[in-house]
Amino acid sequence: MYLEKVTYNAPQEGARLLVLGAIHGNETCGSDGIARLIHEVDNKVIHLDKGHVTFIPVCNPGAYQKNERYIDVNLNRILKMHDQPKFYEEHIANELVPLICAHDFILDLHSNHTKCDPFVFLDYPDDESRKFCKSLGVESVFTGWPDLFMDDEDCTTLACAHRAGKVSVTVECGEHHDPHSIDVAYQCIVNALMHLGMISKSNEETQLFPPRSKFVKMYRAFIKEKGGKLIKNWQHMDQVSEGDILAVYNDGQEEVSPINGYILLPNIGSKIGDEWFYLGTQES
Fold it and tell me: Could you read off the pLDDT of 208-249 as tens digits, one per residue?
């Protein structure tokens, strides 16, 4: 058993919500936001009126202890059942997948290596998922992730939930070390509980986000194939134009933008074989 869980059952039946923190061990805002919420429930500041909620504050405890993204492999790329698990994260996946399947709604809380405003990944934007996503109050919503990796099996938390017929979103709450990201994680949990009718009281004066959403369609993922560097210190959501040079490899090969749009999640410290950056366009 790798995972510690905290579960609350209300007197009345209702939705079943699963809240995940630290899928990546160095992304701790979700863990801290969950801890704040647990403290408030235990001290009757927040009362669970309906339904069932399970919190997993730390989904990758080994990486969390080392303040690393993962131990062996990226947990958020292998979330399926493994018949003969050999990697550390595969053992964790075998615990997480049944829990995801046992709940109706999944809220997965992350943070980012680069300075950015909070945003949401909505990989499977059916009507119920859009409503759940919008209830969180985060302004920027990114769709289209599964299309980026259509040649490979998608094994994120969201894909795992989708295959099980569940509603799920992933929130990137801000930069890893920004204290505000903890507030974002906490408020997203409260907003989710309110949306699902699980709690009847919250401090609405602390609402952190505007009740509107800007949807951005992810267009392409750029994988770092060999040694190289970004052409400049790109920031998340910087606008780019068709033909702009985005990065250059050590052998002189250039990565050029094929569209007018945005550069997303640029990672100056990306390792060879990992995602380097993405491009996206605003949905009409």
Answer: 445 556 788 999 999 999 999 999 999 888 999 999 999 999
Q: Where are the beta strands (DSSP E) in 114-156?
A: 119-121, 140-143
Domain borders along the chain are 6-212, 217-282
Rounded CA separation 117/264 (Å): 12
> In terms of residues, how long is the chain?
284
3-state helix, strand, coil in the chain (%, to 5): 25, 30, 45
Tell me how crowded residue 43 is: count the other CB atoms within 10 A of its CB: 8
Q: According to the CATH classification, is domain 217-282 in 2.40.50.100? A: yes
CATH number of 6-212: 3.40.630.10
List the one residue out of 72, 80, 260, 110 whose CA is nearest residue 121: 110
Distance CA 205, CA 212 (A): 17
**Would you give the DSSP letter of residue 76?**
G
pTM of the model: 0.86
- Amino acid symbol at 4: E
Q: How far apart are CA 138 and CA 187, in angstroms?
A: 10
**Could you give the CA distance from residue 116 to residue 57 in angstroms, rounded to a whole number?**
23
Residue 102 has what DSSP assignment?
A: T
Helices (H) and strands (E) in the chain, counts: 7, 14
Listed in order, strand segments (DSSP E) in the chain are: 6-9, 12-21, 50-56, 105-112, 119-121, 140-143, 167-175, 214-223, 228-230, 238-240, 245-249, 254-256, 261-264, 275-282
